[in-house]
Structures are given as structure tokens and as C-alpha cells.
Amino acid sequence: MSTFSYREALNQAMTEEMDRDDRVFLMGEEVAQYDGAYKVSQGMLKRFGARRVIDTPISEEGFAGMGIGAAMVGLRPIIEFMTFSFSLVAIDQIVNNAANMRYMSGGQFAVPIVFRGSSGMAGCLAATHSHRLEAWYAQIPGLIVLMPATPADAKGLLKTAIRSDDPVVFIEHEVLYHERGEIPEGEHLVPIGKAEIKRPGKDVTLITYSRSLKVTMQAAEKLAEDGVDAEVIDLRSIRPLDIDTLLASVLKTHRAVIVEEDWPYCGLGAGISDRITRTIFDELDAPILRVASKDAPIPYNRAMEQSMLPSVPRIVDAVNSVLYREV
After folding, report:
1. C-alpha dist (Å) from residue 74 to 23, 69, 111, 112, 226
2. pLDDT 10s digits, 48-81
3. Selected catalytic residue, list 8, 17, 80, 129
4. What is the pLDDT of residues 156-190, one digit of tens each?
5. 320, 223 contact by CB (below 8 A)
6. Residue 9 CA, distance from chain mean position
7. pTM of structure
8. Do strands 230-234 and 196-199 pair parallel, antiparallel, or not at all (unpaired)?
9. Considering only CA atoms, which of 160, 154, 169, 209 is closest in space to residue 189?
10. 129 catalytic, yes or no?
11. Which of 20, 63, 72, 174 could be 56's S-S partner, Cβ–Cβ 3.0 to 4.6 Å?
12. C-beta of residue 45 within 8 angstroms of C-beta of residue 80
């Protein structure tokens, strides 16, 4: 094991896959000369040259479409959006073309492409630069949606995504780039569609992903001080969803709280709650609760932005509610 930052893990994944397969290339705004807006592609232009690390104009629809065309003829593009809020400019290409091409061509065309970049509330970026779009993309058949929370998962999932023959939406939370963690040495791949139990427990299941994993783990430790043994599951893969791991945990604990940075209305947690409830309703000892962001546009003010996010007190309150504990 060696310790690296989240951004270093992503850089390693892309570098290793570009070394392994000369069909892989990176394209996006400022990925080459500037080493990436968040320095994720640092050093890659020097290593691979301008034919494989390509700066683009500010035209997300254009370079996303170019990447889809390249994938259809046998290349394996990585398309970086400076922020996933800007992917809305390219949503026609992602949703109408990348997601549907294999189906509409009767399997004649695969689209092995990765759309990756930063997402989420990252501090004073305001409403137009703080979107969390995982529920939007997860709704679309034909797309894989991944959201790693740790450096090890970031590297392992990105390498797997690059090798996938289907389009992958790979969402990296901006505040995670500086987070550090251990990564296994040598070849490291994480399977798509497999959640991970980050903390075993028996009293309540806490389901989360991406940035929210950190605050959920903190809440689990706080609950432990009060004698509550919480199991924490990191989804990692949003679509496909590892429903089997979730069901097995809730069958053990009989209670669940979903923690997400998404908005509550039609958010990802709503779909997860529905699938658990429909499958094992009789095993639930309490309604499934969700701790999500406040249902409003994202403010510029840092303190107001922080007040919108899931927090340890909000998670603890939700757990106490499903346990029918008076505190």
C-alpha cells in the first residue's frame, strides 16, 4: 500500500491505461497545457504528447460529440468536463447519442467512452457551478454512473471504466481531490456495480456515496458513543446499483437512512428507498429516512452553503428517529 491523493489516483489510472492501450486518449478544457483545471492530468501532455492529451475550446457539446464519434470507430476517449454543471451543455450528446447508440444500432456500435469531471458543492461556486447530476444520468438506460469516495476506489473504478465497452459517467466530487488514502500497489481494478461495506454494524444501515461518505462515517462514530452500532455502505456505483448488498444489510438491521448531497425531490435516494421498500417491506421496523441537501438553489455564501449539506447532527437525528430513540 502507498498513500496518494484522490487527484493523484485519477492521474495514475489514466496514465496506466494510456500506457496499456494506445487507443485511450484524454480530451477537454485545459487538460493539456494547464495540466487540468484541478491538476488531475498533471504531466500527461509531456508524457503522451498533444495527439493523446488534447485541449479543446469551450464547447462541451462539440468535444463530447467528437469523443462519441471517436469511440464508435474504435478509440477509447476520456472526456473531461471542467465541472459536471457544464455537462448540461452536452447532455444531448450524452443522453441521446452515447447512451442509445448500441441499442439503436442493434449492437453494431459500442461507445467505450468515459465522461469525467468534478461535481458538487465545493465552496462559494454558487448555483450554476454546484450541481449534483447523478440522479439525472442514473435515470438513463445505457449509461453507467460511478461516484468513488476514496483514492483507492477512484483509481480502481476509473481504470475499470476506461476498459468498459459502454459509456461511463464518472463523477468526482471537487472537495475530494485533496483527500489522501492508501492504494494497493500493482494492478488495481474495482468492479462496476459493487458497493462496499465501509463499517460493519447491526443496528441501522447508513447508505451513502461520494463526499457524503466522510460525514456519514463521522456520524457513525458519534452514534457509537451512544451505543448505536451503524453499518455504513458506500455505493460507489450508482448505476448499476448493488441492491443485493443493500438488501442484505437492511435484512440484518431492519432500518435504513440514506445520506446524499443530492436534492431531496426526485433525488437518487428516493429510487433507492423505493427498491428496498418494495422488495423487503415486511422486514422494515421503521420507514426509510433520507438526509439530503436542502431543496433550494445553491447560495454563494459559504456558511449558507454548508447549512444545506448533510451534517452529523442531521444524520444522528434521522437514526434516532428510525430507532424510536428520544434524546
Report:
1. 8, 9, 8, 8, 56
2. 999 999 999 999 999 999 999 999 999 999 999 9
3. 129
4. 999 999 999 999 999 999 999 999 999 999 999 99
5. no
6. 15
7. 0.96
8. antiparallel
9. 160
10. yes
11. 63
12. no
